[in-house]
Amino acid sequence: xxxxEDDIHKNEDNKECSEAVNLYEIRKSKxxxxxxxYMKIEMxxxxxxxxxxxxxxxxxxxxxSSCSELFNTEKTGxxxxxxxxxxxxxxGKHIVSVHLEQTCPVHETTTV
Amino acid sequence: xCELLHLNIKTVETVEASMFYENRKQSxxxxxxxxxxxxxxxxxxxxxxxxxxxxxxxxxVSFLKLGELFHDELFxxxxxxxxxxxxDPKMDAGMLCNRGGKPTLNFEQALSVEGRVKLEGLSLKEQxxxxxxxxxxFVSWLEGHSLAQTIFTNLYMHKPYLIECxxxxxxxxCMYKIIDIIRDFVSRGVVFEEEDFQLAMxxxxxxxxxxxxxxxxxxxxxxxxxxxxxxSSSNANNSEVEWAIALNCRIRFVRLFYQLFVALKxxxxxxxxxxxECYNLLTTCIExxxxxxKTTYTxxxxxxxxxxxxxxxxxxxxQRLLPPTFPRYTKIKNNIDSFHYFESLLARLKQALxxxxxxxxxxxxxxxxxLSRSNPCIISRSVMQILYMPENGKILGTxxxxxxxxxxxxxxxxxxxxxxxxxxxxxxxxxxxxxxxLSHCVRPFTLFIQLCGHNRARQRDKLSHLLxxxxxxxxxxxxxxVYLHNISVKMDPPRxxxxxxxxxxxxxxxxxxxxxxxxxxxxxxxxxxxxxxIFWYLHEFLYGWLISALTRAENIxxxxxxxxxxxxxxxxxxxxxxxxxxxxRSNSCEIVICQALQNMCGxxxxxxxxxxxxxxxxxxxxxxxxxxxxxxxxxxxxxxLMTPPIVxxxxxxxxxxxxxxxxxxxLYFSASKLYHQARTVLESISTPDQExxxxxxxxxxxxxxxxxxxxxxKRGREHSLDFDFSAHHHFPIFxxx
Lengths: 112, 737
Prior knowledge:
The complex is a heterodimer. Chain A is an alpha+beta fold. Chain A contains four helices and five strands; from the N terminus they run ααβββαββα. Chain A has a five-stranded antiparallel sheet. In chain B, the strands form two sheets. Chain B has a two-stranded antiparallel sheet. In chain B, strands 6-7 form a two-stranded antiparallel ribbon. Chain B is globular and about 90 Å long. By secondary structure, chain B is mainly α. In chain B, helix 16 (401-413) packs across helix 20 (531-571). Strand 2 of chain A pairs antiparallel with strand 2 of chain B.
């Protein structure tokens, strides 16, 4: 992330058109860095989907692979075991929040 | 290589995911015990370190171009297509609208909830309702739904051994056994397709540790107990007695139904001894269904309300066992319908049992074809297959299939080599040739029998493949004929052996070709304007060839009889005379029916040209149409055959052009004449069966319609025309409007 921010600072002096191009490139590289990472997406009906981020488009439709479905018990009032759904497409309009898993799982960081 | 890599990644992903899944399971169990602990915090802390990127993400995504997919090189549009769409009510099983609001409880959980599942103290009425609902589920399973969505929506069926209530317990155990035995029949019958039947068990284990005798014994004990209730409390509570009788009736039905399948499965049945027992069981079962129908109480339960769940049914219980994209709901039949289904199933089984009385292959095949017309259920089809060919190479469990085929060829055409007093067969080489040929016949002929067990829609495809097998067989038949001919002309007296086995095989080929063409009507594959060449082909060629094949067979076997008799006359015996005559009669009867059908098809053909000339039926627009291409497509399956050769489109075109010139009046007139001829031929059959009577009905009605048309009424395009297939699957009745 910090690299990307650095880039933005560096490019501030450049011309506006090239800035736009660069901005585009930056976003792309940002997206690229998220690809094949674990993502947690909360949907409008309170369900939470966790899976590997593999694809997206302009409307923020997201495809997660090996996706599991969990329930946000507070919101839905359902407490059930998670289900494995496989490859799943979530329409952008139903996405409430997106979380990215940061590099290492907690059970490693907590031991540190 | 790329794909391999991708696969590897995928498997790694799934392994990771399943590990994660296990972790979650563990954690959720803990959660269940300590309810205060909120799952939200668990989600955050257990194995992931989440960072909110919502804003960043939407921001980044908005820079993508319209329609641009952002993905890495291993993931493409193709993969994207197979994703299930969340929040689409048809695909998303987890959606609130698809889960019915209530949490699903498994057996143990339901036990702990007051009034959900009771292990003991179920009233007789409750038991009856559970039994009836389970039987309805069972019927829905037989009709092709998954076990998970039918029978195993009954929580009692999950753990039958825990039930304390004896009737329900034994019933559940018996259902296990019935499911098991029916699965066995269907999987051994090998005539099922995914649309017919679901074999999947979804991890439920049907108990093999209870023997047949034990199951039946337990059921009998329950029956005695219920009988005691009926007799002891006769004065106390009338409705109680009524329920006891109804439950007793159900337990008895289930027991007999189970015993029936056990009897069908027994090896001894093929020897003939078990058939009587099966008939008895069937008859008693059928009698019981009527008393089942009289005692259904489920109308009193409203399935929309709490009704089912308090009796241990939960339609959602197995949702997690199903693949994510699976039909959400299975409509379970109501009790009345399912008891009627049992009734018809038993009647079909009775018909299927009859196959054991057909020892000749020819008759058995005809019976298979005849029964298949009514499109019977998968159970009766499988049972019939297993009864007829319980193991490879054995017909009805006893006769060697090669012997049966040899007998069939002998009855059909009586080839000199197979005749009783044949001298040719004494030559080793000739014998070897014939035996080799007959053993090559085994596969196509068993395939033909098997084909008749498949459902109607699948039969058509299989028929075209079967033609390939028979085409190869015919080559060999002709070769063997020529070989035997060379020997037999040198014998004393010299005999011709040409076209003997060839005709026998040709007969089956023509039958398959006709079945193939006719199935298109039944499956509604042809459009109206295509009927012309289909009927033309049937009329001009297939039925004509079939008649000539049958006549040739008749002549050759008569000739053979004559020679045999001469031999006998010389030797003084005259016993087998009558027997032979009876055999050849089946051929001549078939010739008569073929003649009628040939006339009928000719009438349809001519009438169709008339309708086209009058524009009573719509033709496709000129620029979208190429009749030749359609024609070739319709008959392309026949191109594998050498004899009979495929008839070219040009022939059809020329003949139809010539007929068109004769004018509409003439066409209608000659069509009505042909219908009349068909009628006369059909009426000449002394013992008409159901099929012939329906054909007569079709022929008579169409004759009148064409008579009306020929006399100039209802002409022109304003009087539109309909084809009514309700009387017969293949031959429509014309309906003028």
